[in-house]
Every structure is written in structure tokens, then in C-alpha cells.
Amino acid sequence: MIMRLLILRQTSISGQPARVGDLVDVSDRDARLLINSGKAEPTLAEPAETETAKDLEPIQRKPRKRRIKSNGTA
């Protein structure tokens, strides 16, 4: 049996990434695992058309500055 789920937390299903907000069709066994772990919830109907995570551009982060290493000597 196939179930449709709404992904609540980023995870992977059968090696494929599933992002927050995605609607995925999975087997009954995978569905129970995802629901019980709090990563997904079952859906009954198609949600209203909204902007999904795939439509958004990735967030550009500032580069991190490297920390100077010291061996305890001043």
C-alpha cells in the first residue's frame, strides 16, 4: 500500500533526499517509520498551491573566519 506524506523534517527515503514541505508517496512500512519518528505526517488531500522549498533560492551564507590555533603558549 502506498501512502502520501508531508515531510516535517529533512530526511532521506530509500537514498533520495526529502526536504521540509515535500509531498512524497512511500510504502506503508516507510510511512510508519517516518510518522513514528516525527519526520512526516499523513496527508489526505492536495494542499493549496504554495511556494515550496524547491522554488526558493538557496540562502547565501557568510564565509567563516578561521580560528587561530594556539598551543597554550603566549
List keywords for this structure.
two-stranded antiparallel sheet; Ribosomal Protein L9, domain 1; alpha+beta; single chain; 3-stranded antiparallel β-sheet; 74 residues
What would your notes on this structure say?
It is a single chain. It is elongated and about 65 Å long. The mean pLDDT is 82. A three-stranded antiparallel beta sheet has the order 4-1-5, with helices on one face. The protein has a two-stranded antiparallel sheet with strand order 2-3. Strand 2 and strand 3 (16-18) form a beta hairpin. It has a domain at 2-42: Ribosomal Protein L9, domain 1 (3-Layer(aba) Sandwich), CATH 3.40.5. The chain has one helix at residues 28-36, and strands at residues 2-7, 11-13, 16-18, 23-27, 40-42. 12% of the residues lie in helices and 27% in strands. With 74 residues, the protein is of the alpha+beta class. The chain is built from one helix and five strands. It starts with a strand and ends in a 32-residue tail after the last strand.
